[in-house]
Protein: Integrase SAM-like N-terminal domain-containing protein
Organism: Clostridium magnum DSM 2767
Amino acid sequence: MQGGVRKRGNIWYYYFDLGKVNGKRNKVEKKVGRTKKEAETALRKALHEFDSCGSILNESDISIADYFDYWYNEYVLINCKYNTQINYNRIINNHIKPALGIYKLKSLSPSVLQEF
């Protein structure tokens, strides 16, 4: 994601594009302060928050079993029908957790998945 800073009068602003909706470009522009450094710092922070929006988990220290529990509670129970919930729960508890539950999310590799 790209963004930039600019000066209008004595005030610095940062801006970045959110994407296109219905063929129109959505852009965020915020007034920051009186120095370019403040604007660049605020831009980096805003881009980081935008990129990690909705991401609560840090994949470096969570196991596969914990991630699937989180995913089941936060996504499946909210967005899926009852029978789908039952089937996902069965697959997770009977197949995925016994085989892959001990691995950390960051250490999961294609070779481990291929073996599974």
Remarks:
- The longest helix spans residues 82-100.
- The chain has two domains: 3-51, 64-115.
